[in-house]
Design brief:
The structure is a single chain. By secondary structure, the chain is an all-beta fold. About 0% of the residues lie in helices and about 65% in strands. It contains no helices and six strands. The protein starts with a strand and ends in an 8-residue tail after the last strand.
């Protein structure tokens, strides 16, 4: 998932593999600056990703069942 603020500013939230583990990665891009804000090891199986926010604060969360989300 990508939250686009402008063409040069965005947040990315995605699942990838690091070796034999699945990892949720949250990173932001501010023009030439790219920073990984969080990497969370995920259990195997389906996961739900959620982004909520206001004009000044964004929250990224995940869940196995779609009901109980961890930020």
């Amino acid at each position: 998932l990508t939250l686009l603020m402008t063409n040069q500013h965005r947040y990315d939230c995605f699942v990838t593999r690091r070796g034999d583990r699945r990892v949720l990665v949250v990173r932001y891009v501010l023009e030439l600056i790219r920073h990984t804000a969080a990497e969370i090891i995920l259990p195997e199986g389906p996961v739900h990703l959620r982004i909520t926010g206001t004009k000044t604060v964004y929250t990224f969360a995940w869940s196995r069942d779609g009901a109980a989300f961890a930020e």
